[in-house]
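Q: what sequence does this backbone want?
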């Protein structure tokens, strides 16, 4: 999605003056990009008309950087589509807080239950209990037990012979007795919405009165996600949504649609199969990500877990600055390696996520080692000023690092391209700030 949007909006960027036709053309492409990304048709229509109104109504066309101004409006409207502010879990004044996870089979309820318990234990010092109410799916209970034991979080179950309502009630009793202030109920799903499932969930809701019913939705299901969200919300009245599998090859449409259609906030997003791959949902960051401006803040937050704060701040400055050198680059490689799969990180860096030049580069550890060796074979002077690298210096570096001159050249080229893109991003950001003041 973001590549399409960038293309559509990219055409506006350089323009000194916009005609109404420019705006219309861009909006038509934005519309197609959104529809192609599986955003709900009605949502797209409303969105486009809002953006158009703001573009045409205001003095965008006279502003100094009209293109940036339009991008800013698109960004703002995308953000508001997804909820403006971050939504949190609301905890019961009298513990335990009871959270019930619902959703289709395979959406990620069981995994997310574990992730959420782990997250709230770590960040809010909760003492969670996981309750296994999926009595249908073979090995569902075992799966939850495995998740719980990995996180060192207790799991309550009564096998698969009792009914879910009784299990949930007994689970809560158990939590009260053991001093767990948070109960997360993992429920069963079906492959499709059916009445039996809904009735069972309604029974649990009526008897247990959860403080939060969170709907778990697979972001990769695209348009279907909207139907699922509507159905569950009508039947149960959900309090919030957790979108899973946003790490996958999603076109982002689900995130845009579900909130707009249900008016229920997206509270968390699942970003991978590992149990710490859960993040609070930030609408503004998601909008930037969709627009392809990267997600510096999420990257920083992740960095903070792995790196110390000072280092993270430095990293932010460097990533944002166009003045970084090979010296910085090398310094970062070590830190970056701690952060996780490189491909994922690249996607979060402004301007890099969609860079065609980087598409073919294999960001694996072997590549990293090579890059590291090459930089290490440079003198300090060379690292700070790669322009002095002539043929003989390059040969020396290649020999020193056990690589070929072509490898050195490729790294230099990538480095220059990266710098250029970062500069573009920095300029764009400046332009947006300026555009904002011109209103
Ligand atoms: P449930 O049937 O709703 O309980 O779904 P599960 O929790 O069993 O998850 C189904 C599959 O989706 C499992 O293989 C999970 O590892 C996977 N999964 C869940 N959340 C995510 C996520 O955020 N990203 C990725 N890549 N996979 C996920
Ligand atoms: Mg499950």
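A:
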């Amino acid at each position: 999605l973001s590549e399409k949007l960038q293309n559509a909006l990219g055409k506006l960027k350089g323009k000194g003056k916009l005609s109404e036709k420019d705006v219309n053309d861009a909006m038509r492409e934005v519309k197609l990009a959104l529809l192609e990304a599986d955003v709900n048709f009605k949502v797209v229509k409303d969105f486009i008309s809002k953006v158009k109104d703001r573009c045409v109504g205001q003095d965008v066309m006279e502003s100094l950087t009209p293109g940036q101004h339009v991008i800013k409006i698109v960004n703002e409207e995308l953000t508001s589509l997804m909820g403006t502010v971050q939504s949190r879990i609301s905890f019961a004044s009298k513990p335990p807080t009871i959270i019930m996870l619902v959703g289709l089979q395979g959406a990620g309820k069981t995994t997310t239950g574990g992730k959420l318990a782990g997250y709230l234990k770590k960040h809010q010092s909760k003492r969670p209990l996981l309750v296994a109410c999926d009595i249908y799916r073979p090995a569902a209970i075992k799966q939850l037990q495995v998740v719980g034991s990995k996180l060192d979080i207790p799991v309550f179950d009564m096998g698969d012979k009792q009914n879910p309502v009784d299990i949930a009630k007994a689970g809560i009793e158990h939590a009260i007795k053991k001093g767990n202030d948070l109960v997360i109920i993992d429920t069963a799903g079906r492959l499709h919405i059916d009445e039996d499932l809904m009735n069972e969930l309604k029974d649990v809701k009526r008897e247990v009165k959860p403080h939060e019913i969170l709907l778990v939705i697979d972001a990769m299901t695209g348009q279907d996600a909207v139907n699922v969200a509507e159905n569950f919300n009508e039947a149960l009245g959900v309090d919030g949504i957790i979108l899973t599998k946003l790490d996958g090859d999603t076109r982002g449409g689900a995130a845009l649609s579900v909130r707009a259609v249900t008016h229920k906030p997206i509270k968390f997003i699942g970003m991978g199969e590992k149990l710490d791959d859960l993040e609070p949902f930030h609408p503004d960051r998601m909008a930037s990500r969709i627009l392809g401006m990267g997600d510096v803040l999420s990257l920083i937050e992740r960095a903070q877990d792995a790196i110390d704060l000072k280092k993270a701040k430095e990293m932010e400055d460097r990533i944002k600055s166009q003045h970084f050198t090979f010296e910085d680059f090398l310094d970062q490689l070590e830190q970056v390696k701690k952060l996780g799969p490189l491909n994922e990180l690249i996607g979060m860096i402004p301007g890099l996520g969609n860079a065609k030049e980087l598409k073919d580069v294999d960001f694996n550890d072997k590549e990293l080692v090579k890059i590291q060796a090459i930089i290490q074979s440079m003198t300090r002077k060379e690292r700070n000023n790669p322009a002095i690298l002539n043929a003989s210096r390059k040969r020396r570096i290649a020999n020193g690092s056990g690589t070929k001159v072509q490898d050195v050249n490729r790294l230099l080229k990538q480095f220059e391209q990266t710098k250029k893109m970062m500069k573009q991003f920095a300029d764009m950001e400046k332009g947006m700030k300026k555009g904002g003041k011109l209103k």
